[in-house]
Amino acid sequence: MSKPARAWVVVGSGCVVGSVVWLIVSPGVLGAVLLAVGVVILVIATIGRLMRFTIPELDVPDTPLRVGEPFSVSYRRRCKRATDVSRIRLELVLRETVKYTAEGRGRDGTYTYTETVTHENLAQDFVVAGRRFEPGQTINENRTFRIPADGMHTFTADHNRIEWYVVVHMDMPRSGDNSVEEKLTVSPELAE
User: Fold this and answer.
1) What pTM was computed for the model?
2) 107: three-class secondary structure by DSSP
3) How far is Cα 37 from Cα 19, in angstroms, rounded to an integer?
4) Nearest to 132 by CA among 89, 87, 179
5) What are the two backbone dihedrals, phi and then psi, of residue 49, each rounded to the nearest 5 degrees?
6) Which domain holds residue 31?
7) pLDDT at 37
């Protein structure tokens, strides 16, 4: 465990022990608040310790891209404990969101409702084979994507949005969603 992590465990433990003593000697709200703070610090320190990887870094262009333009993506993540990764998928995704209002009929008569529907279209992807990562090793993937030449630019209206994202999925056994995404802006200009 690193020195900062140990320090947080000591602070959290001190808060818990101190607040329990305080609550025994002089029950009150302040002791309960101190106990809650100590428990939160310990929970956060424990979760941080149990994480297999550091927080991912996904670098995408922060300037608008043109339709048909290639661009580079960089994904980095350091391993904190030995972990098997099944695969890593890097994707360029077009996401369209439509909001519409409709009428329906029910026992109580006619009613109006609003629904939002999102559809994703995979424009391009790369799959990296899985392998075992040891503590201290870093996943470092660099890829070049291209906004499709027949693709739509970023668009926002009251009831419709077209957005582009780079999404990275890291598949691991016995693990929840390990996805990260970054939004892109695509201008209506065509690449030369």
Assistant:
1) 0.71
2) coil
3) 10
4) 87
5) -70, -35
6) 3-50
7) 78
